[in-house]
UniProtKB/TrEMBL annotation:
The organism of origin for this protein: Streptomyces tubbatahanensis
Annotated ranges, domain NADH:flavin oxidoreductase/NADH oxidase N-terminal: 401-735
Source species taxonomy: Bacteria, Bacillati, Actinomycetota, Actinomycetes, Kitasatosporales
Protein name: Bifunctional salicylyl-CoA 5-hydroxylase/oxidoreductase
Pfam families (UniProt xref): FAD_binding_3 (PF01494), Oxidored_FMN (PF00724)
Residue ranges of every copy of the FAD-binding domain listed in the record: 15-337
Superkingdom assignment: Bacteria
Disordered as annotated region, ranges: 741-772
């Protein structure tokens, strides 16, 4: 058949085929038909009309509002069947804690499908049940648009993987969808600590007499408990016995239920034009998945359908409409997937949290996805948050971020750290007036700890010619000037120094002249664990360090530590992250040595630990020492989260007082999963697996984030970089915005008059009384 040109939406009515009769596919079909009754819309569903899996579906208020606007008839019918509740309950170790004000709506999946079937029939949508759809490419020969809503195992996505670019990631837990024949009055989480490990229940009502019950556990627990050998009936019976607080001895039932592992689906593209001219677009689970613990699967599919229909109406032709649909939905979905990933990971690591005090555990669970935070949870249920704060020893009226924290002989007034930020503004390694003003301003801004940039231990250890150092007397004297100012004038801040060596990432231009680009002239030779350039074909090839050089560099670190002590720093951090020299030893991607310093992780740790020990010996015993690590390389074959726990444990055993948990920047081909607080789960895991204090860093941007992380026990300190560039007084302003005036954030005396937000306009105008 001859290929057709792109079809203008205002021309001949479209012929549409929908593969998959789930909620997303059906809703897309009825919207497309409702918006243009002349369209020929056909849905192919391989199951029978009455077939379905699962039990209840949860819809957000935003999704329900979208349905109401798009099709009031469907909304009215669905509303009559919806069950609503606003409480979340956490049952754990004999206690049930409740948090109110959350707001959910759910209904039975079978009911939802029945309503959509009926509305499709009324509108004239063709419904072909018990019919396997032809391949999408074949349908595209006769249809203008093929909507692939064929689920997580999408045959369409697989057949056109070269175009869509899918990534399907399996995860560590097994889960099964079951139901109970009674209605809960809240969303209920119950945690069962069995002899084999932790098993969790996610349960919620979806009808006046029924509740969904999803049971989930780690793969190894699932096998050890023998669930892998149980059929559906036996699995339901075994699960029912695990959750007495929720079920009270009542049974669970299945619906062709089976244990499965969750898979996260991501696609680079969501649509393409078929060879015959028709267009194929992904929708719902075929395009993306997000873990059920944030209740998003049906919600996302329905919102996809709403967006697709709207874009087809708004755009001049199919390619423009599908491009607009993808552009609109991808950022929303990626954001949801980040939240779902945080929630999924939290439940995968649930065993690390079960020993937390009751309210901390419940608060941690409720805020696990980072979408519910300390501040909005306080607005929803102030009494619950107040109870969690009392349990944690937070004084009344004090935000958690303004509680003190002690390491050795140093007590920080609050939990805010100005993160190390390279300024590239030194001359011959000597910090000048810029550093005095830069660090001094931030020390006056209320943070509990201000960190220098990475201070290099030798001229050849610099990243750029503008990097600061601590290898001679002039540098030591210049740093003493900075620490003296901080100690004399800041009412809150301690000051810490970060020592490092650039390794293979050295001898480059200043950041704003070309980050990671070699100097055009004046280069110095580089050293590294192995002769591997940072950017192959661009960066200088470093020399692999010899035993003599290893000893010399170690001694340079120790000498710099002694200078840092004399210069008056309160804390020292050893930089073992971001692909610099010591980080290069830790990662298997950058350490290819065959001697005692390469190979297994224990051997790769050897040299960084030798340096740490030398620095710790040179550093005063009463002053704390931390270490910064990259907890993942964001690259295949690199450092993993499991490795990071072992690395952190090793440094803690050698005397590290806290671990500063960053990620990445180790290899140029990394693929980080950026997003709000995206690195904090790695800090969280290390803290709760090892009981080691951690500093969380990575797109922590709001005081609400800091409060949430501290109260949940995911971090002890939070390091922020860009917010302190935007606002040197970020911490003091955070206190003012929360109405806090206590000892955790005193204003410098000369600034005290500015401790309240200036008025922005008249607020005393007379209020209206009459309307005439």
């Amino acid at each position: 058949m001859t290929a057709r040109p792109a079809q203008p939406t205002g021309a001949r009515a479209l012929r549409v085929a929908v593969i998959g009769g789930g909620p997303g596919g059906l809703y897309a079909a009825l919207l497309l038909k409702r918006l243009d009754p002349a369209r020929e819309v056909t849905v192919y569903e391989r199951g029978a009309r009455e077939d379905t899996y699962g039990f209840g579906v949860v819809l957000s208020d935003e999704t329900v509002g979208g349905i109401e606007n798009a099709d009031p008839d469907v909304f009215a019918t669905l509303r009559a069947h919806m069950v609503r509740w606003d409480a979340i309950e956490v049952a754990h170790r004999g206690r049930v804690l409740s948090s109110a004000g959350h707001g959910f709506a759910a209904l039975g999946r079978r009911t939802l499908l029945s309503v959509l079937h009926e509305r499709c029939r009324e509108l004239g949508v063709g419904l072909r049940f018990s019919t396997e759809a032809p391949p999408a490419a074949e349908l595209a020969r006769s249809c203008d648009l093929v909507v692939a809503a064929d689920g997580v195992h999408s045959a369409t996505r697989t057949a056109h993987a070269d175009v869509f670019g899918p990534t399907v990631t399996p995860h560590r837990c097994r889960y099964i969808w079951l139901a109970a024949d009674f209605a809960l009055d809240a969303f209920r989480f119950e945690i069962a600590e069995t002899e084999h490990g932790v098993v969790q229940l996610h349960a919620y009502p979806f009808a006046g007499d029924a509740s969904t019950a999803v049971v989930e556990t780690r793969e190894e627990v699932w096998r050890a408990a023998g669930f892998d050998a149980l059929d559906e009936h036996a699995s339901a019976a075994a699960c029912a016995r695990l959750f007495p607080e929720t079920l009270g001895g009542r049974p669970l039932r299945g619906n062709t239920s089976q244990w499965t592992a969750f898979r996260t689906v991501v696609n680079e593209r969501w649509w393409h034009r078929g060879a015959a001219g028709g267009h194929i677009v992904l929708l719902g689970d075929a395009a993306h998945t997000a873990h059920f613990s944030i209740g998003s699967g049906t919600k996302l599919a329905v919102e996809d359908a709403l967006a697709l229909a709207a874009c087809l109406r708004e755009q001049p032709d199919l390619p423009a409409a599908l491009a607009a649909y993808e552009a609109e939905r991808q950022p929303v979905v990626r954001s949801t997937q980040r939240a779902a990933s945080a929630s999924l990971t939290w439940f995968e690591e649930l065993a690390e949290y079960t020993g937390q005090p009751p309210y901390r555990f419940a608060f941690n669970l409720l805020t696990r996805s980072r979408r519910v935070t300390h501040d909005n949870l306080r607005l929803r249920d102030a009494a619950f948050v107040a109870a969690a704060e009392r349990e944690a020893g937070v004084p009344e009226g004090t935000p958690p971020m303004f509680t003190p924290f002690r390491m050795r002989g140093l007590t920080l007034r609050n939990r805010v750290v100005v993160s190390p930020m390279d300024m590239y503004s030194s001359q011959d390694g000597v910090p000048g007036d810029f550093h005095l003003v830069h660090l001094g301003a931030r020390a006056l801004g209320g943070a509990g700890l201000v960190m220098t940039e990475m201070v290099c231990v030798s001229p050849r250890g610099r990243i750029t010619p503008g990097c600061a150092g601590l290898w001679n007397d002039a540098q030591e004297d210049a740093w003493r000037r900075v620490t003296a100012f901080v100690h004399a004038r800041s009412p809150t801040a301690a000051i810490g120094v970060q020592l490092g060596h650039a390794g293979r990432k050295g001898s480059t231009k200043l950041m704003w002249e070309g980050i990671d680009e070699p100097l055009p002239e004046g280069n110095w030779p580089l050293v590294a664990p192995s002769p591997l350039p940072y950017r192959p074909g661009v960066s200088q090839v470093p020399q692999a360090l010899t035993p003599v050089q290893l000893a010399a560099v170690r001694d340079q670190f120790a000498a710099a530590a002694s200078r840092a002590a004399r210069a008056g720093f309160d804390l020292l951090e050893l930089h073992c992250a971001h692909g610099y020299l010591l980080s290069g030893f830790l990662s298997p991607l950058t350490n290819r040595r065959t001697d005692a310093y390469g190979g297994a992780l224990a051997a790769r740790l050897r040299y960084p630990l030798e340096v740490f020990d030398a620095v710790r010996e040179a550093w005063p015993a009463d002053r704390p020492m931390t270490v910064r690590i990259s907890a993942t390389d964001w690259a295949e074959g690199g450092t993993t989260g499991d490795d990071a726990v072992r690395i952190a444990a090793a440094f803690a055993e050698h005397g590290a007082d806290a671990v500063d948990v960053s990620t990445g920047q180790v290899v140029a081909h990394e693929r980080p999963d950026f997003g709000r607080s995206y690195q904090t789960p790695y800090a969280d895991r290390i803290r709760n697996a090892l009981g080691v204090p951690v500093i969380a860093v990575g797109a922590v941007s709001s005081w609400d984030d800091v409060n949430s992380l501290v109260l949940a026990g995911r971090a002890d300190l939070c390091a922020l970089a860009r917010p302190h560039l935007y606002d040197p007084h970020w911490t003091l302003h955070a206190a003012a915005e929360q109405g806090y005036t206590g000892p955790g954030a005193p204003w410098p005396e000369p600034y005290r008059a500015g401790s309240r937000r200036p008025p922005t306009g008249r607020t005393d105008a007379p209020k209206p009384r009459l309307a005439l």
